[in-house]
Specification:
Helix content is 10%, strand content 37%. It is mainly beta. It has one domain: Galactose-binding lectin (Jelly Rolls, Sandwich), CATH 2.60.120. The strands form two sheets. Strands 1, 2, 4, 5, 7, 10 and 14 form a seven-stranded antiparallel β-sheet that branches.
Length: 223
């Protein structure tokens, strides 16, 4: 009789009142394991991050170390008298200024990064955010730190006093040496880049000014 009574009581309880174990979700300790793992992988302070759409920041001139990696190199190495200098303009902009002279068979001024190794395999080019003076400049990369090695370069124009983002595909860079094309040189090896350079030449005599906000490697042009 007692067993029959208990069965009658249980059959009268609605199913929606029967306690069930709640599912794990992102708000429970069990469900947040993936988030905890992501937190462990967050970059340390000061470490630069990469986003496939926005590109890999190589230089952003927010750190003194960026400035220390660059130096002016002018036609004085060949007997010319052109002059240039670099300085910080605000918190995160590198300003490159000077005067190009054609005397003594000169005619160029440049900024060059100090030799290092940059593995940019998988990227398709370099993007620069710059503000110029309306003159034409050249950007180049090197696979060899030697002074007598080829430069892979491309020219770009600037709009006076306007910020621009210039994209330079690796495929557009041509091997040159002292302004002469080298048709027998192999293509640029993007996994073995040793230095970066910005240059003004092409008989553009007189003063110039170029400001650089950042330099990135990109996978697509949607910067």
């Amino acid at each position: 009789m007692l067993l029959l009574f208990l069965l009658m009581v249980l059959s009268a309880i609605p199913l929606n009142l029967i306690a069930l174990e709640p599912p794990h979700d992102a708000t429970t300790p069990q469900g947040s394991a993936a988030q905890r793992n992501m937190d462990k992988q967050s970059p340390a302070e000061g470490v630069r991050t990469m986003d496939e759409n926005r590109g890999l920041v190589i230089f952003d001139f927010n750190q003194q170390s960026d400035l220390d990696q660059w130096r002016p190199v002018n036609d004085t190495v060949m007997g010319g008298i052109s002059d240039s200098s670099m300085e910080m303009a605000g918190a995160s902009v590198l300003r490159f200024t000077g005067v190009v002279s054609l005397e003594n068979n000169g005619g160029f001024a440049s900024l060059q990064s100090r030799p290092s190794l940059y593995d940019l395999k998988g990227y398709v080019g370099i993007a620069l955010r710059i503000r110029g003076d309306g003159k034409r400049y050249k950007f180049s990369l090197k696979n060899n730190a030697s002074l007598d090695s080829a430069r892979y370069e491309a020219a770009f124009s600037t709009e006076k006093d306007q910020w621009q983002t210039v994209t330079i595909p690796f495929a557009s860079l041509k091997p040159t040496f002292r302004g002469m094309l080298l048709p027998n040189e192999p293509p640029l090896d993007s996994a073995n880049i040793k230095s970066f350079s910005l240059l003004i030449s092409d008989k553009q005599e007189g003063s110039f000014k170029l400001e650089i906000d950042w330099i990135k490697a990109y996978m697509n042009e949607n910067m």
